[in-house]
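User: Okay, second chain of the day. Same drill as before: sequence in, structure tokens out.
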Amino acid sequence: MKECYLEAVSLIERLHRLYLEVIKCELDTLKVEDINNVQALVLYNLGGEQISIGELTTRGCYLGSNVSYNLKKMVQYGYIDQVTSKHDKRSYMIKLSSKGMALCKKIDAALDKHVEMLESEGLTELGDLVVQLRKLEVFWGNTSTQKIRFGAVARKLK
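Assistant: Same drill. Structure tokens below.
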């Protein structure tokens, strides 16, 4: 069981890296050179909403990337618009520009093709995989929360 657990963790990381490579290939096919694969994933996760940077960060996995730097670049290249928050003038909300929306539509079309390809390859059990991964997510969330609680209790006992 431990071997399977460790292999699953390793696979999750490798699959994420491979997925970023797939996104890079799609960008290359579209001849998009002013944005990288992580930035494209950020755009896609932003979708049509106007949200805060904090909320965006919780939506996706951007390990090894500087979200603030990437957002600055995407604003610079016209993929994202910044809107000053109505409630706090020191912070701002972000949303896709028309250029960002256009790219997201192209990425979405590419993902539709991927889904068709998955089905033709016989990879139709992804729903079951998602159920298992969500359970793992809950387990890790509960484990990290318990560690924090146990740490606080241990400190109080000292």
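The chain is about 70% helix and 10% strand.

User: Thanks, on to the next one.
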